[in-house]
Amino acid sequence: MTIDKDYQELRDMAAKFADKEVGPLAAQIDLDCSIPASLIEKLKEMGFFGIFIPEEFGGAGLDYTSYAIIMEELSRGCASTGVLISAHNSLCNYPILTFGTDEQKKKYLPKLASGEHLGCFCLSEPNAGSDAGSLTTFAEDKGDHFEISGTKNFITNGREANIAVLFAKTEKTKDYKGMSAFIIETDWEGFNVQKCEDKLGIKGSSTAQISLEKVKVPKENILGTAGKGFRIGLETLDGGRIGIASQALGIGEAAFRYAKKYASERIQFGKPISDLQAIQFMLADMSTKLAASKLLILHASQLKDEGVNYSKESAQAKLFASEAAMWITTKAIQVCGGAGYCKEYPVERHFRDAKITEIYEGTSEIQRLVIAHSELSS
Fold it and tell me: Catalytic one among 160, 348, 358, 361?
């Protein structure tokens, strides 16, 4: 499949930035468990905080295929940096852009597009992960405002975020009905970061638990229609899965490139181990899985850009790319042998970073359910 010249130029630009500015910092980001402010400023200068926000709101005005390409290249440089930008764009910017009123867009999108404000997405709870309909955070109608109380779990960018797209029940139901979406400013009284998780991978990205204690939210900050938040959540995650698939592809590509380089330089039995058929077979399978992942992601993102239903295709892309990344990073360690198991070499970091792509924004099992439902209902 050929790709448009403009997309190739965008990829070249993003790859150059990742190689020069992101990749050299990845090991230290993993060690420090934070992304340096200097890199965040450069990400702002590149326009990566407002990739598909229209120019009228200060964004780059690119399409979703462009977003997927940028996410792949940034994540190849550093998975933590990739998910910082991915969660901000697809989980906060997107629902406000798609479901927000003109007033909400004018108020929030310019600062989100510039990176002055960072966004997060608050759906999961301690007892509501894959079963998002069972959330218990409740928004009580107080006349001119809502009062929200509850706890949110595993919130990417939760430590630093200024704006949250948050889901709560506005009706006391036992399923997804009665769920509403809100735009929350995190400096409002009662919104508190309880803790940040100590994670296996993507350690430079904050993952926080949030508590809400009678947070007063103006009526004008409800996103979309009251009681229709579940659909907003599902549509947002459909697009977000393309971003995570792209992140997984970038991680897998980084691991593959290093394994290939190592195999060409490592001498055993008087010759590079890349001459050994066992190594060649692993590299061949890595290359093939990466190529398939890229095509699935491109197909899903182009369907989205065309305005065609892409729920099944985004689930397929995320399922395949994330499981491919986990397989590729495992084999990359195998190619590198004992060295691959040591932190001196990057493949162990890629291995740790890859695992989460099979879990967040819908586990592999949830993706299979989405795909099966689509096939059986068609």
Answer: 361
Looking at residue 2, its pLDDT comes to: 60
Inter-CA distances, 295 with 59, 287, 298, Å: 27, 13, 5
Q: Is 145 helix (H, G, I), strand (E, B) or coil?
A: strand
CATH architecture for residues 5-114: Orthogonal Bundle (1.10)
C-alpha distances in Å from residue 56, one per residue of 59, 84, 272: 7, 24, 55
One-letter amino acid of 224: G
Strands 267-268 and 271-272: antiparallel
Cβ burial of 98 (10 Å; 0-12, 13-18, 19+) is middle
- Helical segments of the chain, H only: 5-17, 26-32, 37-45, 64-77, 79-86, 94-99, 102-114, 229-265, 277-305, 311-336, 347-355, 364-377
The rounded distance, in Å, linking the Cα atoms of 354 and 320 is 12
Specify whether the CB–CB gap between 152 and 144 falls below 8 A.
no
Terminal CA-to-CA distance of the chain, rounded, Å? 27
The whole-angstrom separation of Cα 176 and Cα 228 is 9
- Contacts with 170 (C-beta within 8 Å, 6 or more apart), sequence order: 138, 139, 141, 146, 178, 179, 180, 226, 227
Do the domains 5-114 and 119-228 sit in the same CATH topology, yes or no? no
Q: What is the CATH number of domain 119-228?
A: 2.40.110.10
**CATH class name, domain 230-377:** mainly alpha
The answer to whether the beta carbons of residues 246 and 75 sit under 8 Å apart is yes
pLDDT digits (tens, 9 = 90+) for 269-325: 999 999 999 999 999 999 999 999 999 999 999 999 999 999 999 999 999 999 999
Query: Phi, psi at residue 154, to the nearest 5°?
Result: 55, 50
Q: Look at phi and psi of residue 47 and say left if phi exceeds 0, alpha if psi is from -120 to 50, else beta.
A: left
Spell out the domain ranges in the chain: 5-114, 119-228, 230-377
Strands 163-169 and 119-122: parallel
Concerning whether 361 is annotated as a catalytic residue, the answer is yes
Instruction: Give the pLDDT confidence of 341-369 residue by residue, as tens digits.
Output: 999 999 999 999 999 999 999 999 999 99
